[in-house]
Design brief:
Layout: E1 6-8, E2 14-19, E3 27-34, E4 39-43, E5 47-62, E6 65-71, E7 81-84, E8 89-94, E9 98-106, E10 114-116, E11 122-126, E12 133-139, E13 149-155, E14 160-161, E15 166-167, E16 179-188, E17 193-198, E18 206-211, E19 214-218, E20 225-227, E21 232-241, E22 249-250
Antiparallel strand pairs: 1-19, 2-3, 3-9, 4-8, 5-6, 5-7, 5-8, 5-9, 7-10, 11-12, 12-13, 13-21, 14-20, 15-22, 16-19, 16-21, 17-18, 17-20
Length: 260
């Protein structure tokens, strides 16, 4: 059984492999960093790739279309995204310093390029008390992607998310759909940290101190997140597995909190 792990995303100029292909059953994560005036040619290979700007001003050419991804930073502007099918070549042209998360899932199916504008993303507030958080659905099941479901979560200082703890590592019709997941974290101010706990495995439980630009793999288990006081915490999350309908299963010990 694969084990959860944490890794710091390198931010060297060009393409940085964060969670390598083969580290998980189907998911992987890259970070593309470009300076003003730079271009980069990219091929998705055997994966569908969702491109999400963390901070960016880029034009992307793919399959005869031209798309613009702009964002000052994750804490001040909503995301847009571009979903590229497998075996697709794209060229990125940066108008300013740009950092783009390339969220990938291996697939045998080849779909079409899908652009999701900032106006099209869906935002909601979930939870209550100190587990209230803002969740933004960017690539939900209504978007014509092949495998990926993707969004962002924002914790206020001292607050929890992915809470009450849930998991999605088992196929139980009508109860839980099996999907693996990756989180990529940002902190505001950047010197802060949060915690990522993954528990419920047969061998061990894990608790990670997560800092700015850390990524965590979640192959199984319940996986709550908390932010330290005084610092906002953000994470980009994406999943792939059985279908594209999210069916998380809450830890029965804490299910009573759903009704509070």
């Amino acid at each position: 059984m694969r084990q959860p792990f944490k890794i710091k995303a390198a931010r060297s100029r060009g393409l940085n492999h964060v969670i390598e292909e083969g580290s998980m059953d189907s998911l992987s994560l890259d970070l593309l960093v470009l300076g003003k005036g730079e271009s980069f040619e990219y091929s998705t290979g055997s994966s569908e790739a969702a491109i999400v700007p963390l901070k960016a001003s880029v034009m992307v050419e793919a399959q005869g279309g031209v798309y613009t991804l702009k964002r000052a930073d994750v804490f001040s502007e909503k995301a847009s995204a571009l979903c590229l099918p497998r075996e697709t070549k794209a060229v990125f042209h940066a108008d300013g310093h740009s950092e783009l998360a390339l969220c990938k899932a291996r697939t045998d199916r080849r779909g079409k390029v899908v652009f999701i504008s900032a106006d099209a993303v869906r935002e909601k507030t979930v939870g209550r008390d100190n587990w209230r958080r803002r969740v933004v659905d960017i690539i939900d099941p209504s978007v014509e992607a092949e495998r990926i479901v993707l969004g962002e979560t924002f914790n206020e200082p001292g607050c929890w998310s992915s809470f009450p703890p849930h998991k999605h590592d088992t196929s139980t019709p009508g109860v839980e759909a099996k999907m693996e997941e990756i989180y990529l974290f940002r902190l505001d101010p950047a010197e802060g940290f949060g915690t990522q706990t993954v528990y419920g495995g047969m061998d061990a439980d894990y608790s990670f101190k997560v800092e700015d630009y850390d990524a965590v793999s979640i192959p199984w288990g319940y996986h709550p997140v908390s932010a330290m006081p005084g610092y906002r915490l953000y994470y980009l999350w994406f999943l792939a597995g059985e279908g594209r309908t999210l069916m998380p299963n809450t830890d029965p010990r804490y299910k009573w909190l759903e009704a509070v």
